[in-house]
Amino acid sequence: MRPRSKGFTLIELLVVIAIIAILIALLLPAVQQAREAARRTQCKNNLKQLGLALHNYHDTHKIFTPSSFELGITASYDSIYGMTTPYSNLNGFVMLLPYIDQAAMYNKWNFQHAASWSYVYGPTMSRMKGDPDINYPIAKTPLAVFTCPTDNNNPYYNGVGSQHYSASANNKGAYRTSYDFAVHYNEYYYTFYWNNNLGPTNRPMFGEAATSSIRDVRDGTSNCVMVSEQTRDHQSGTASTWATRQHVAMGVHFGADWRKINDFRGDLTRTHTWMSAGSLHSGGCQVVLADGAVRFISENIDSTTQTRLFYMSDGQPLGEF
Fold this sequence. Notes:
It is a single chain. By secondary structure, the chain is an alpha+beta fold. The protein has one domain. 23% of the residues lie in helices and 9% in strands. The protein has helices at 10-61, 103-108, 136-139, 193-197, 303-310; strands at 68-69, 90-91, 179-181, 225-229, 234-236, 271-273, 284-289, 294-298. The strands form 3 sheets. A 4-stranded antiparallel beta sheet has the order 3-4-7-8. A two-stranded antiparallel ribbon has the order 1-2. A two-stranded parallel sheet has the order 5-6. The protein is globular, with a radius of gyration of 23 Å. The chain starts with 9 loop residues before the first helix and ends in an 11-residue tail after the last helix.
């Protein structure tokens, strides 16, 4: 009688491989979910840092920083309001650098020079403040606090055409931010929109050259969005960079009167429209409320509630969110 050889038969080997494949298939979603949970937690920590920075800035200056300074993006800067000061195109996040452990970077920023070359309707580039290329090495610097780790979109802004929307005319590529101030979408059409066009009951907390304080948030600091997530790229328009302002990159209009949260319209990597709130986290996006708390807001939130969260003193009650 021949001795039985040791080892697996082919059928046994195939069964083992099939079992291993099934286990991997069952385990992989759990691993991905765990990784996304970690990324979402990091994103929440980033927003928490920005909320603390804004409050520390407020404690020091008794007001919040404007979201933008001296924009060259709108015709109203010259034709409507008769402004003659040079364009700076500065994102208000630059003012927060000392409060997010980036004092050295803040001290290197040269405020005698603009943040970007962006001008859309302005008369000439001669109105640009100094030479934006001076600040370009800072504007292109990646900062983790402005980066949602879930968003794999292009992290750098690429300029288009001869209007120099980029951080620099010669050195394109300012670093995009996953977060921005709550501003009205008409900021793009009308400079000083917050100060000149909005009444006390339909104002978000931020605007170009607009300052608000805690006492202005009359609806309650836990009922008003201060900073919102955005995808780092959009299907229409562009997302903002942490240091600069450029074409349609003014902030986030959080209200549903502009767009619902996570308005993807087929492309699940980029929200459809510029200045719209959204993220690549499943089901919604994260925001910083005026009290500094970070909340995840569902994309299925009631439209009226979403819009009322956007305004700081409309006097309207909020639903559940």
